[in-house]
Design goal:
Layout lengths: L8 H23 L6 H12 L6 H15 L7 H17 L9 H6 L2 H9 L4 H24 L18 H4 L1 H6 L6 H5 L5 H5 L7 H18 L8 H19 L3 H10 L13 H17 L1 H5 L6 H24 L3 H13 L2 H10 L14 H13 L9 H18 L28 H19 L17 H8 L1
Helix pairs in contact: 2-3, 3-4, 4-6, 4-7, 7-12, 12-14, 13-15, 14-17, 15-17, 17-18, 17-20, 20-22, 22-23
């Protein structure tokens, strides 16, 4: 009996033209109304069976044409359609057990079509809640198992985005129904942000694709917890507990943590297909709770290398600032206090100060480490002088948070309904019309004093020649604009 073979890069290059031709053939015939593709299914089934580690492109093509053929008769029964999606999941993950390489990123990425189907097929959740929750838990469990089984970390990076050519096959039925007027990536990754999808363009690598799938699985599972009939106090605890457990299981993929923290800096979470606007705001608040609670654990995480650690910590700093702003502007005084305490307890502010002061012979005047806003303002001035402590552009991150604040005010809750109060004793409910505290100007003036003091003490030689001083000193008005 002939043994399965590993598909080496040269062999893949030999088979790639056949795959591309098959994709074109399928799309052309499908849009012409053909539903039977048994000859393609047979060819690719035999081809995949001959491989010990079939590439994602071949797995997706075989699974997509099989799935589309089975559902080409426009199945309207919600339960039958769900069963086909459930079968798709088990079929896709079965390829993982045949691989000797155990490429974690590919094993995670392979389930993206399942999440696409669960969101876009508009299942009757009230009728199939237990079944859908069970499948969501299976997806999350599969991802956690993939992460935990890599004793040497998440290895197996696979460069290239050849899988992008398979997206049109998965969404072919939607394209036909909408006469081609669809955003393919937005449709295929329904729980991703525009920023996440932009990162897919080009040779993003399998690590990045896996992170997108992990964020979508994370959001999908949490959204299913809404409208479950659980009492409000228990509901909050359940959502936060579930979120914390998933983050703990997913965090080995640092791209996932980066993506999740960046998501919390966006104007809204990409859950509009699943949650009403008031529920999206509640989910955001609960995710802020979890992210701030994650700080102390991040302080003692030794699994990250220096560059990864700095990147995640700086993002967490901005998330903490956004959380405080979110709570303050919605009258959640309890939340403000809790977020400040969690921020101070994390020891991450001191870590950021050490990163800066550790490379200069002149000790700069440090900001108030109990305030993420003060530290961000401090870093903005240092960046103006040419100093960087990570790959992040602090100015761009700060601009993103300002954009979030302004867009949140404009967007609000568009349907006019008020959401639930953020906490039981919060004096102000979220109603989409968020406004700044009247003390904001005086906070800015206080910040200017901190920044100017730091700027004067550092001087032009403050960084021992490690960086080049750029630009001129900032005016008071420029500093107001910077930290506002």
């Amino acid at each position: 009996m002939k043994q399965p073979q590993t598909l080496s890069p040269p062999l893949f290059e030999t088979l790639e033209p056949m795959l591309n031709e098959s994709i074109y053939h399928f799309l052309t015939e499908f849009h012409n109304g053909r539903t039977d593709f048994s000859e393609l299914t047979s060819i690719f089934f035999r081809l995949i069976q001959s491989m010990t580690d079939p590439p994602l492109e071949f797995i997706w093509f075989y699974s997509a044409i099989t799935f589309q053929t089975l559902n080409s008769t426009a199945v309207t029964d919600s339960h039958r359609l769900f069963l086909s999606v459930n079968d798709l999941f088990h079929s896709l993950v079965s390829f993982r057990h045949r691989s000797h390489n155990n490429n974690c990123f590919k094993s995670v990425s392979v389930v993206a079509p399942v999440l696409y189907s669960l969101v876009n097929f508009k299942f009757d959740v009230s009728r199939l809640r237990n079944e859908i929750v069970g499948l969501a838990d299976a997806i999350v469990g599969h991802i956690i198992m993939c992460c935990s089984n890599n004793s040497n970390g998440l290895v197996g990076e696979e460069v290239g985005a050849g899988w992008v050519g398979l997206v049109p096959i998965w969404i072919a039925d939607q394209v036909r129904r909408n006469e081609g007027r669809v955003d393919g990536f937005k449709l295929f990754f329904p729980l991703s942000s525009e920023d996440m999808r932009r990162g897919i363009v080009g040779d993003c690598g399998m690590r990045y694709l896996a992170a997108v799938v992990m964020v979508e699985a994370f959001l999908f599972r949490l959204c299913l917890m809404f409208d479950s009939g659980v009492a409000r106090v228990d509901f909050d605890k359940d959502v936060k507990s579930c979120a914390a457990q998933i983050i703990q299981g997913f965090k080995k993929n640092t791209s996932y943590l980066v993506m999740l923290f960046k998501l919390l800096l966006e104007p809204s979470l990409p859950v509009g297909e699943l949650l009403a606007a008031p529920d999206e705001l509640i989910l955001r608040r609960l995710l802020y709770d979890v992210a701030l609670d994650f700080g102390p654990f991040l302080s003692c995480d030794t699994s990250l290398d220096d560059a990864q650690y700095k990147e995640i910590v700086i993002l967490w700093l901005f998330v903490a600032n956004s959380a405080l702003q979110f709570a303050s502007e919605n009258g959640d005084h309890v939340g403000v206090s809790c977020y400040r305490n969690a921020f101070s307890a994390s020891q991450l502010p001191q870590q950021i100060i050490l990163w800066v002061t550790g490379v200069t012979s002149v000790k700069p005047t440090v900001p108030d480490i109990s305030s993420p806003k003060d530290i961000i303002g401090w870093l903005l001035v240092l960046e103006q002088q040419g100093f960087k402590i990570c790959d992040h552009n602090i100015s761009e991150l700060h601009e993103k948070t300002l954009k979030y604040s302004s867009m949140a005010k404009v967007n609000g809750v568009k349907d006019g309904h008020e959401s639930q109060t953020m906490v039981e004793d919060a004096p102000v409910s979220i109603n989409g019309r968020r406004k700044r505290s009247s003390t904001g100007f005086w906070e800015v003036q206080k910040q200017i004093k901190v920044i100017k003091c730091c700027h004067e003490n550092l001087g032009d030689e403050g960084f021992c020649g490690k960086t080049e001083v750029v630009g001129n000193s900032l005016s008071d008005q420029e500093m107001v604009d910077m930290v506002r």
